[in-house]
Amino acid sequence: MSLSRIKEAVIGSTxxxxxxxxxxxxDSIGSSIALAKALSQMEKSxxxxxxxxxxxxxxxxxxxxxxxxxxxVVVNKESIMIxxxxxxxxxxxxxxxxxxxRCRLSINIDHHLGNTNFADINHVDISxxxxxxxxxxxxxxxxxxIDKDIANALYITIVTDTGSFRFDNTTAKTFNMxxxxxxxxxxxxxxxxxxxxxxxxxxxxxxxxxLSTMKFVCNNKAAYIVATNEVMEKWKAGYGELxxxxxxxxxxxxxxxxxxxxxxxxxxxxxxxxxKADFDVQAIASYFGGGGHKKASGCTxxxxxxxxxxxxxxxxxxxxx
Length: 321
Prior knowledge:
This protein has 321 residues and is α/β, with parallel strands linked by helices. The chain folds into two domains: 2-196, inorganic pyrophosphatase (n-terminal core); 201-320, Roll (Diaminopimelate Epimerase, Chain A, domain 1), CATH 3.10.310. The chain is built from twelve helices and twelve strands. It has helices spanning 2-11, 26-41, 94-102, 131-141, 148-161, 172-183, 188-196, 201-211, 229-234, 247-250, 281-287, 305-320; strands spanning 15-20, 45-50, 67-68, 80-84, 105-110, 121-124, 215-217, 222-227, 257-265, 268-275, 291-292, 296-301. A six-stranded parallel β-sheet has the order 3-2-1-4-5-6, sandwiched between helices. Strands 7-8-9-10-12-11 form a six-stranded mixed β-sheet. It starts with a helix and ends with a helix. The model has no long low-confidence stretch (mean pLDDT 95).
């Protein structure tokens, strides 16, 4: 029902602002590009805002150069704003929330458990593998042709959010969508090369340094790694380069929960959680003010790095042991 309302809102609008979360990933970037290109086919004026650096592996996508930072965009009061992959309005940044209040209508499209339904129209489907899967449904509902560029962007959303179809959020619908996108001419070779075979040499140095911090806790049922400000500066790295690092501790036999601590500032830490089996890391993230999915969640801690690690591990220990 809400997708139909979104369709009506889109048809009745001339300017649409598409936004997604800070520290962008494959789902947020791919969803934004796919939706923007689809709306452009409808001859809508589209502005795409993401407050964060685009990781190297996604810069090959056509439409990436159209993404702007908040300061580079003027949002008109007659615009509608579509949030993608944001569990709450804060995920896109404080400036974006100010823009939301200026727009005549806000729309929230997401797949995260615990979404706060902050917009005027909310479509939150926690059964979807990715926000891109929902955007795909919307594009089909709008009867828009999925060309090669849209197919590439949408495929990125599902292949990254399902861990190349390895995670439990992969469904028959996900595979059917991937198959359809292949028939629409997506560049499978370009996606493979850019996602997995085009690493910046500095990112390998970063990986080595971050993996050297690995510690096993909770009777070896959990492992965590740490990316400090110092090591990020050493390798001139963006935080998007850390996206896949958490899969290394998660891949170890016996590990049920993997954690990545990212030091953003003196008193700001981004924490990512991944669960291998049935443990609910969304509940852990939620306790610390975050959220996400049962097996993949995150939160932000406003404290010093060592203190943040101590708090998280102590809380996890009580629930994992």
